Amino acid sequence: MSFCSFFGGEVFKDHFKPGIYVCSKCGYQLFSSHSKYDHSSPWPAFTETIHEDSVSKHQERPGAYKVLCGKCGNGLGHEFVNDGPKKGLSRF
């Protein structure tokens, strides 16, 4: 999943320091830096969530899902079908 921020450009795309990514609205834990991978889009991307309920998704159109914080519903970005690393990492 690619995470995007629409305010002032994305500052975490090339950020690979160890840590936990949290929702900017409520602080709920979303992703570990261990699940982050280098992606061709301008946004950071992750292979799995911290908690089973870290995010919720709904289909916006075929092959594209809107991703929201699982706690407060804050918009986090999109997930695209068949997009991601090809190393067999789990998807959420």
UniProtKB/TrEMBL annotation:
Gene Ontology CC annotation, any one: nucleus
InterPro entries for this protein: Met_Sox_Rdtase_MsrB_dom (IPR002579), MsrB_Met_sulfoxide_reductase (IPR052150), Mss4-like_sf (IPR011057)
Cofactors named for this entry: Zn(2+)
Superkingdom: Eukaryota
Alphabetically ordered keywords of this record: Cytoplasm, Cytoskeleton, Immunity, Innate immunity, Metal-binding, Nucleus, Oxidoreductase, Selenocysteine, Zinc
Cytoplasm found in the keyword field: yes
Catalysed reaction equations from the record: L-methionyl-[protein] + [thioredoxin]-disulfide + H2O = L-methionyl-(R)-S-oxide-[protein] + [thioredoxin]-dithiol; [thioredoxin]-disulfide + L-methionine + H2O = L-methionine (R)-S-oxide + [thioredoxin]-dithiol
GO BP, sorted A to Z: innate immune response; protein repair
Pfam families with a match to the protein in the record: SelR
Boundaries of every MsrB domain copy: 1-92
Subcellular localization(s) per the UniProt record: Cytoplasm, Cytoskeleton; Nucleus
Gene Ontology MF annotations: L-methionine-(R)-S-oxide reductase activity; metal ion binding; peptide-methionine (R)-S-oxide reductase activity
Record family assignment: Belongs to the MsrB Met sulfoxide reductase family.
Role this protein plays: Methionine-sulfoxide reductase that specifically reduces methionine (R)-sulfoxide back to methionine. While in many cases, methionine oxidation is the result of random oxidation following oxidative stress, methionine oxidation is also a post-translational modification that takes place on specific residue. Acts as a regulator of actin assembly by reducing methionine (R)-sulfoxide mediated by MICALs (MICAL1, MICAL2 or MICAL3) on actin, thereby promoting filament repolymerization. Plays a role in innate immunity by reducing oxidized actin, leading to actin repolymerization in macrophages.
Matches recorded under PANTHER family: METHIONINE-R-SULFOXIDE REDUCTASE B1
Protein name: Methionine sulfoxide reductase B1
Species this chain originates from: Cynoglossus semilaevis (Tongue sole)
